[in-house]
Every structure is written in structure tokens, then in C-alpha cells.
């Protein structure tokens, strides 16, 4: 396979097939170098085409709580008080740098997930959808 940029799904599929063929190439060989280059090309293509944004910080915390079977009370050592836990999880208060550090170290939540801007819950409007038509 000739090395070239991956621009289409067909190019991507061919690159993956070639990677699979070269997977056990001996280090230091031409095939190993080709494998490394193809890996970089595939990674660059996937970053553009299949880019996944970091989750909302509050959703990341709730997800980790669910994974580990944690309650809100389990977050008190991280946030300080039960009221603060409630404020954070209900998006009434922003995470501080110290909270982010503790969440990362104690719950192993990726920093990328904790430093993104949390989404705001939608406020319900008293006006019906028909009002805007």
C-alpha cells in the first residue's frame, strides 16, 4: 500500500487493513516504520472524523459516582459540606481548582472532563412552543 493522506472512508479502511497486516512487524524494519506512519495517519483522521468532546464536568462526576456506587455523602470530603455537594451537582456553584484536583486524584476523573465548561440546564418556559411559531 502506498502511503498517502487518509481523506475518505475507503482510504481509512485500506489503512486499517494494512495496519492489521503489518501488526507483528519486527522493530527496526521497513514494515515497522510503515506501521508507525500508518498509525499516525489513522490517528489524525480519527481525531477529525470521530472527535469526541470531553463530557460535561457535572455529568462526569455523576457518571463516576454511578460507576463506583458513591452517594452524595461520599463527596463531602472533596467538596467540604453536604450543601456544597448539592450546589455543585445542581450546577449552582462552579468547581474550584482544589475541587478539580481532589476529584482527579480521589475519583480518577480525567482533568479534561473536569475543566470543560459545564452546560446549563434549560429553563422551562411558560410559553408553549406554538407561541414561537
Task: Write up what this structure looks like.
It is a single chain. By secondary structure, the chain is mostly helical. It folds into two domains: 41 residues; 59 residues, 434 Repressor (Amino-terminal Domain) (Orthogonal Bundle). Helices cover 56% and strands 0% of the residues. The protein is built from seven helices and no strands. It is elongated and about 60 Å long. The N and C termini lie far apart (56 Å).
> Spans of 5+ residues with little confidence (pLDDT < 50)?
122-133
- Count of DSSP helices? 7
Profile the largest sheet: none
Structural class per helix/strand content?
Answer: mainly alpha
Distance between the termini: 56 Å
SSE layout and pairing:
Elements: H1 9-22, H2 30-49, H3 57-68, H4 76-79, H5 82-89, H6 97-107, H7 111-115
Helix pairs in contact: 1-2
Amino acid at each position: 500500500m502506498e502511503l498517502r493522506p487518509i481523506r475518505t472512508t475507503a482510504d481509512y479502511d485500506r489503512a486499517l487493513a494494512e495496519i492489521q497486516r503489518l501488526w507483528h512487524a519486527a522493530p527496526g524494519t521497513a514494515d515497522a516504520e510503515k506501521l508507525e506512519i500508518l498509525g499516525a495517519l489513522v490517528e489524525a483522521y480519527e481525531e477529525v472524523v470521530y472527535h469526541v468532546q470531553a463530557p460535561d464536568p457535572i455529568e462526569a462526576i455523576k457518571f463516576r459516582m454511578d460507576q463506583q456506587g458513591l452517594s452524595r455523602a461520599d463527596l463531602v470530603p472533596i467538596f467540604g459540606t453536604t450543601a456544597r455537594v448539592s450546589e455543585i451537582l445542581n450546577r449552582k456553584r462552579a468547581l474550584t481548582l482544589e475541587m478539580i484536583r481532589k476529584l482527579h486524584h480521589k475519583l480518577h476523573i480525567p482533568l479534561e472532563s473536569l475543566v470543560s465548561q459545564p452546560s446549563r440546564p434549560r429553563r422551562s418556559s411558560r410559553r408553549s412552543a406554538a407561541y414561537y411559531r
